[in-house]
Each structure stands twice: as C-alpha cells, then as structure tokens.
Design goal:
Helix content: under 10%
Strand content: 15-25%
Oligomer: single chain
Number of helices: 4
Radius of gyration: 19 Å
Largest sheet: 6 strands, mixed
Order of helices and strands: EHEEEEEEEHEEEEHEEHEE
Shape: globular
Distance between the termini: 8 Å
C-alpha cells in the first residue's frame, strides 16, 4: 500500500479526537467561479453510519480490477455548472474510534503510543492541526517540476451538478463555505466533519435529462488563468492517485483533461470505479488503471492502454461522480488524497 496515505488508531488520542457535530440547516449559495445557486434541499439524508476502524478497507494499486465498474457506461453531461458552494440540512460525523482495536501494520507508533492519524501527501485533515493559518487547498503543485503550469484556484475543492442539460440534482457540503478573507474556504466544512476531511450529501433529480442524473465533488489540479480559462498540468510523476473515502453509493473517479480535450474525447474521460463503502476504504490507482468507458470516439493517442497516463500529463481536475437512478440520495466523506509514490 502507498505509504503516503495511511491510517493509524488507538489509545487516548483516539478518544480525544471524537468529534461532536451540529446540524446545519442554512442553505448558502456562493461561487468562486460562477454565480450560480445550488438548489435548496431539505430532504437529504440526515442519518449516519457509525462504524469502527476495524472495518476500514485498504486496497493496493492493483486492487481496482476486482471492483465492478457499475457506472462506466453511463453517458455524462457535456458541460455542467461547477460551483464551489455549500449548504447543509444535516451533517453528523460517521466515525467513532475504537480504542480496543489497533489495525495491524497500519498502526504508526510514536511518542504517544498509537494515535489516530489520516495523512495524504496531497491533502488531509493533518494540514490544519497546529497552524495559525491553515490551508485547505489540495497541494497539486507539490511534486511538479514546472510550477508555472498552475494558476488561480489550483487545488480548490468544488461541487458540480447536472443543470446544464436540464437536471435538477443537488449536492451540499456539510457546512457553508467561507471564512474571513476567503469566501471559498472549506475549513468550516472540515470542522463540521469532525476535522477528519470533507463531507456532504446529495440527491439526484433527473429533471429534463435524457440520462441518469449526476453530481460531482472534486478539486482543481491546475486551476485557471487570469481570463478564467481552465489550465492543465503534467502530474504524471505522481504515478497514480490514492483516496481515503466513505460513500453510501458507488461512484467513479474521473480524470478531467480540460475543456478542449474533453470536447475531443466527447466527455468519455478516463475513470476508475469506486465501490460503495459506508465503512470507509483506501484505494490507490496507478494511472494505467484509468480507462475510457468506450462510448466516446476513438482518438489517436487515447487508447485504453495509455488513456490514464495521457490524462495525467494534461490534468485539469480530479472528481468523484455519483450517477444513479432518479431520486437516489447519498452522502460522502473524503478523508485524504495522496499520490501513488512510494
């Protein structure tokens, strides 16, 4: 397993990290990139699954082959309304830590014994602890040889919905975004999610769509230039990507290559399946595991055996897409993001 993304648990520190959450019921609209408004939704899931770390699933980079790709063939929208906005009807951290259970191998022994810790070399809650000015952005440029590829809002989290073609789906962070001096900061979300990542809820509504509705949660890799044009960056030296997550519905993890290439590929973008995991999972994927679904056109240089590596050299965004039947409701929790470097 990739050592850049790890989990350890036990003892007094585990108990100290138990989080209290409060229900937030104040829909907020906002926008770092577009002044659109996410629809208010008071019917989102309010319950949470309470589990122990003993059920946490860990996969190696080669483990993705045994996960059924239930959504790879679903056509996706050609354009969408990307909004780093949030509101919440209810949020409750779904993790309780068991001081009696210490996962073998994954337990990091330190001066305090074995302590609860989530870490990803690109992003994790560890980013916030002990810092006067915590930074909630994904560190997408950390391993880049050419940092000039990265622009405005590189590493910023976003939510995305299916309204462009008539969908009426909604997705919400667990708390309104924004702090003094940064209206797009997701630090309030991290705090609401027990200082263990970002979480939220969604409801899929087909509206006038001719295909199954969807929502997305992800982060910008390269960001935007001064004119608001999406940039791409070469992050192939990550060798892949690791994700620690919890999700009530199956999904796909997608590599977005920017507006121009997206259109060439007809939005049939390289992706890997993410299985439903209410108990939590760690997944690591080499770039070669990302495949196009096949309903898009054949494009020279983007064959299945190289599509993932090609996308990694022109990466604009990474996002999780939930696409299911009309009326599906769900929740998600992202604990950490890391490269696939040893």
């Amino acid at each position: 397993m990739n050592q850049k993304l790890y989990m350890a648990s036990a003892g007094m520190f585990a108990l100290a990290m138990l989080a209290c959450s409060e229900s937030v019921d104040s829909p907020v609209s906002g926008t770092a990139e577009e002044p659109n408004v996410l629809m208010a939704n008071n019917d989102l899931l309010s319950s949470s699954s309470i589990v122990e770390l003993s059920s946490f699933s860990v996969d190696t980079p080669n483990s993705s082959a045994d996960v059924p790709n239930s959504s790879a063939e679903l056509p996706t929208i050609s354009s969408s309304s990307e909004i780093p906005v949030s509101s919440s009807s209810s949020s409750e951290p779904s993790w309780l830590y068991s001081s009696a259970y210490i996962p073998p191998v994954l337990c990091k022994i330190g001066g305090f014994g074995c302590a609860v810790s989530y870490s990803g070399d690109l992003w994790s809650p560890e980013t916030y602890y002990g810092k006067d000015e915590p930074d909630d952005d994904v560190k997408t440029s950390s391993f880049a040889e050419d940092k000039s590829q990265f622009g405005i809002n590189a590493g910023k989290w976003f939510l995305d919905i299916d309204t462009a073609d008539g969908g009426k789906s909604t997705i919400q962070w667990a708390a309104p975004v924004g702090v003094e001096g940064d209206s797009t900061s997701i630090l309030p979300v991290v705090e609401e999610c027990g200082e263990r990542g970002v979480c939220g809820t969604f409801k899929l509504d087909r509206g006038d769509l001719s295909y199954d509705p969807f929502v997305r949660v992800g982060f910008n890799v390269a960001g935007f230039d001064s004119n608001g044009v999406a940039l791409t960056a070469d992050v192939s030296n990550w060798t892949g990507i690791c994700l620690m997550y919890e999700a009530s519905q199956s999904a796909i993890l997608v590599l977005d290559v920017g507006d121009s290439l997206d259109q060439v590929l007809k939005y049939d973008l390289p992706n890997v399946p993410l299985a439903r995991s209410e108990a939590g999972s760690v997944k690591c994927f080499e770039w070669s595991k990302f495949k196009r679904a096949g309903w898009g056109p054949s494009v020279e240089g983007w064959d299945d055996d190289v599509a993932g590596e090609m996308a990694a050299r022109h990466l604009s965004k990474v996002y999780i897409q939930f696409q299911e039947r009309n009326g599906t409701e769900g929740k998600f929790h992202i604990f950490a993001v890391g490269t696939n470097l040893d």
